[in-house]
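Recap from last week: sequence in, structure out.
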Amino acid sequence: MISLEDAREYVLAGCRVSTPSVVALRAALGLVLAEEVVATESIPPFANTAVDGFAVRSADVAAAPVTLRVIGTLAAGAAFAHPVGAGEALRIMTGAPMPNGADAAVMVELTELSADGTTVHVSRSVEPGASVRNAGEDVRPGQLVFSPGVVLSAGHLGVLASLGRLSVLVHPRPRVGVISTGDELIEGDQPLLPGQIRDSNRHTLLAMLDQSGCVGVDLGLVRDNEADITAAIERAVGQCDALVTSGGVSMGAFDYVKVVLDRIGDMRWMQVAIKPAKPLAFGTVQGVPVFGLPGNPVSSMVSYELFARPALRKMMGFAPRAWMRAPVRAVADEAFVRRLDGKVHFNRVIATLEGDGRYHVRSAGGQGSHHLTAMANASALAVLPDGVGVAVGGNVDLLLL
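Predicted structure tokens:
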């Protein structure tokens, strides 16, 4: 067996950061920026009011309460041709440009408009600049707004749109093919014949790819037949940036995935010192990374979490600190008993944040590599180093899922 760290280091070294490409803003959420964004204009582009109310000269309301003459109404999206003079006020709506002559806005709550709309009573004074958003207050021309490496959130996309951008240069979402192999697998609700089971791994892994921000490509079920597996893998690497298979990576007589990948790829077959998910294959076929995950459903999910997800995040341009989930220290609300076996165990647990400000964990159910329901109910993996486990009340590290 090799250590988790050595296996992950080998996998990460075999994956390169993707070449940047231009995508529409709508498709860029969650992706990593690959360019410097420098402002070419001001945000806001002009001084505007932050409130509904009246644009005034602050000197005219310094001795409030006062009554001013209303010279018009200005809505957002329009402009007012005449300056605000002494003793005058302009009724104005949020976002409308400040008129010449005015240097402040009084919110409507501090005013009372006359019945005929010709005058306004202002009950309180305001300072110069009150409720005014100045041009360039957020962003100035020539300013470096965002640097490469930023993970684009909804707010980032809003700023880009404010700068007139319709697209942006990012590290794209990798297209990742998913194949399930095995003569025992069937799809859907057709009746099970003796020895058959319904495929869950493909659907699970495609969903995990979606959660990781990738584009999952469903390549279907492939029988335990060398020719079929060869054709499926060659088709996959021709259209995908990476490939994930489940099953056929152990040492069984019918593990044809291993036979095919050894023949057409540059693969390494590993026994990793972890439980579950000890068997792992990784390498390349025609330069495309291939992750050979174990066939047991929980093992395939844990293996994806520990190896494929970090590697795919590297390909997507994330910083190294974001490739893996950071461990969180928690309190064991029940004992997690294990025995010495040279492996790190990843127990499926339910984690809750309690009143003491710490996460507390309990088992999510059966810990067998076939207990998919417990994995579905788990919100974290408890990391149990080789040893005898953790007693009630002891500290345990979590990977929050």
